[in-house]
Structure formats: C-alpha cells, structure tokens
Amino acid sequence: MLATSRPYLLLVAGLLLLLGIGAVARTDGSLAPYGHHGYVSVHGLALASNLSSDTRFLLYNFSRVDHEDAVTYDAYGRFPVLPFGLIGAALATSDDTDDQITAARALMLAFFVATLLASYRLVRLWSGDWRRAAAVVLLAGSTFYVQFYKDLVFNEMPALFGVVLSLWAIGRYRCGAGRRMIWWAPLIGVSLGWQTALVIVTWLAVSLVEAWRRRRDGNRALALRVPLAVTVLTALVGAAWLGFNLWNEWAATGETSTLARAAKRVGVTGMPVFWDHMAQAIAYRSAASCIPYVALPHVATGFDPPDGPLVGQTPLLAIFAALCLIGIVRIVRAPGPTRGTLVTTVLSGLAWAVALPKYFAPHDFTAVILFPTVLVLHDALLSLLPRRAMLAATLAAAAVFVVSTVSVRQDAVATVDEQRDYGDLAEARALMPRGSVVVVDPKTVPPFHTWFHLSGYHYGEYGWADYVVTANPRARARAINPSAKRLFVVPLKTPQSR
Fold it and tell me: What's the angle, vertex CA 108, arms to CA 150 and CA 138, rounded to 5?
C-alpha cells in the first residue's frame, strides 16, 4: 500500500507545499471583509482571540461595558470550541497582527491538505487505483468553493476534514480494511464540527435501508449494532461539546441565546423556510461545487444563484446533470459494501444543506461541505477512462489544480488595498491599554468589521468610552495613529466617575 501510494504522496506534498506558501501570503496580513471570506474570517479570528480561561473558554464575539463598568458578553456558542482553540493557539505564536493572520491561514491550509490526503485514502478504497484516486482528489480540490475558502479562518476546513476522516473510517469498516478507526474518527470529526454528526446519521440510515432489504437475513440486528453504537457515541460527544458551550454561556450571561439562534437556522422559529429559494440555492451550489475555480466564470454567474429562476445557467446545469447521471450509474453498478459507502458519501453533505436551509442558503462558504459529493461524481466521471489513461488524467488534474490555485491568489491580491484599511487598527492597538473601552462610529465604520482587531478591548458608548474609531478624515489631527490610511483612533475625555 505504501509503495503504491508514494508517487501520489510525493506529488501532492510537493505541489501543496509550494502552492500553500503562496496561498498563505495572499494579502499583507491585514483583514478587511471582502465577501463572506473576509466577514467570516474576521468573525473566526475574533472568536479565537477572545478564548480565555478567565471566561472558561466562552465563545463570544465581543464584550461590552456599561456606564457602571458592568461587563456583558455577546455569546456565540454555535460550534464546538476545539477548532477555535486551535486557531487561538496559532494566534498565540506572535504578537504581530499580520503574523497572527498568516499563522491562522496556514492552519486552515494544513486542514485543507489533510482533507485531500484523507480523501485520497477514501477514494482509493473504492477505486483500487492510486492514479485514479490522485486524479479525483486533485480535480475535486480544484473546484470553486473549496479553492476559494481553503484558508477561511473559521471552522469550515476543520469540519470538512472531520467529515472526510469519518467517511474514510466508514469505508474502511464496510470493506473490512479496519474496525478500530470507526470508533475514534467520528469523535474527532464531531469535535471539529457538527457536520460529522449528520455523516454518521446518514450512515445509520443507509445501514437501516440495507438491513430492511436483507430482512430475512438472521444477521440483520448484528449488522446494525456498530452503526447504532457509533451514532450514539458521536451524539454523546457532540452533546458534551454543546453542553460545555451552553453552560459557559449561562454562567456568563444568564441565558442560552445559542439555542434560540439555532432554532432559527433550522427553521423551527422565525421566518418560514421558503423551499423554492432554498432548493434553488442547493441546486446551484451543488452544481458550482463540481466545477474547477478557473472554469466556473465561463459556465455560471459566480458565488451565488441569480435572482429568480436559474435562467442563463444552462451550461452549468447540463454539466451537473450529466455528472449526476454518471454518478447514479456508478453507484448502481458498484458492489454492495462499496455502494453503501458511495451513497453515504454523496448524501452526507446534502443532508447538512437540507437540515439547515437558513444557514446554507445565504452563506456560500458552507458549500464546502458538498466536497464529498464532488469526490463521488468526479470519480464516476474518471471511471469511464481506460486504466492506461489514468496517469495522464492525474497530470491533467494536477495542472488544473495549479491553475485554479494561482487564479484564486490573483483574484485575492486585487483586494489588498481594501484590506489594508483595517491594518490601521493594528498600529493603534499598541498604543491603547488592554481593557480600554472603545466606541465605533457606526456612520463610518461597521462595528462587526473591528471585532478581531479590537479583541481584548470592550465596546461602550460615547459617554464612558476611552477611544472612538472613525473613518472621518477630520479626526486625523487628534488620532493616536495619525499615519493611518483610513481608520483613526481618537482618545475621548471620559467621565470622572470611571
């Protein structure tokens, strides 16, 4: 196994090392939101930088101080704390903001590389050919959403790694290659993101269908024992992480708003789920997920589905329909154990999209969870090639991977000027005492954008704040960072009562 894997490992390790170094340095390190990549990275960095034993590792966006110096926290306990703890460890490697962001992006790229390597082992299980597995992984790794969001500083890449790791464990168990991994891989996965829980539930559902089809078989109950036990164990570990978040939130704020927010995302409360819009978003993103980054602008409109019907998307939908047809044929013709693994892999990402429609539809970055589905569809496509053509297919897939990665970096470089604005706050932080109270001028600066750069400080109001952050150019003369490009931090005269 190792000998036949070595060519692929050498190829991918060298390729991703070179391209990863360039991808990490795709900006100067400062972060201003550009689309969801910037917004969500600011959010993830803020959550990670706010983690502290002083607050029992509460996940929160920011802290606020009132006129009586009482501190409150805007809790955000929707995800397991582990990935943000890892991001926090990356941030702790330096006091320089640019270096911190670079380290956090490097960590996300490490999870991306780990995801590709685990995907190779998964595809190798059902393809039996290292060249085909390498081609599938490189081609799938070139696709639109995973390429653009591979260094998103949030829990999407860690969660995706957990999903693929769990699918690999399921594949190994089903084909008899190993039974130990199935007991620990899902526990790691659900600790990195809730998405793994739906992978295990999907596997249990597939196992139940298989058991029903073999209902005259006396070993039916025995075949369900492991899937059921793993599901229960995964649920317990996931509940422990969620309980940890809720307990911390209750202790810090006296409420558990996370549950109310989660109910809105699922569609239990709040606005009703408009399934026509949701179905369109799922269909569009599923199709776009299959297309290499460099090719998508030629067949689709971009990140999000257009308003109204999917008119003008004929090339994209035709390609996706053909891939789905080929994938269905591939699954139907697969032997029993492989077929169940393929079905579980295809449905795991779609299950997340359907279970959380209000989260998936408006957030394009969540489409990275469809990566396992893409693996199956691309494998089905390459299975049509003769075995002697697989080495050429691998080299072609590597070329697509290179071009897509370079294209992502070039597109990101175009936003550097916009991002440098928020580096102004990094300069000012060195002159502001930790724990100072800051007010952000909402007329010129969206407060959300400052969460990471002002972590360690409290938000307040003009009556009792120590500093104001503003983009008003007339504030330059009074600012503590007069050399700033756009964002100025101005000291305020605070009341004597403080």
Answer: 45
Tokens for 305, please give them. 């589905």
Q: What is the pLDDT of residues 352-389, one digit of tens each?
A: 888 887 788 778 888 999 999 999 999 999 999 998 99
* Bridge partner residues of 71 (DSSP): 65
Give the pLDDT confidence of 12-62 residue by residue, as tens digits: 555 555 555 445 444 444 454 456 677 788 889 999 999 988 888 999 999
The per-residue b/e assignment along 371-410, b for 16 or more CB within 10 angstroms, e otherwise, is bbbbbbbbbbbbbeeeeeebeebbeebbebbbebbebbbe
Sole residue written with tokens 């800051």? 438
Neighbours of 135 (CB within 10 A): 30
Identify the domain containing residue 465 by its residue range: 419-491
Number of domains in the chain: 2
Whether 48 is in a domain gets the answer no
Give the three-state DSSP class for 310.
coil
Element (H or E) spanning 201, and its range?
A: helix 195-213
User: Computed over its alpha carbons, how large is the radius of gyration of the chain?
Assistant: 24
Structure tokens at 106: 């490097």
* Predicted TM-score of the model (pTM): 0.89
Give the count of alpha carbons within 13 A of 120, CB side only. 23
Quick one: 156 and 175 in the same domain? yes
**Structural domain includes residue 496:** no
Distance of alpha carbon 435 from alpha carbon 69, whole angstroms: 11
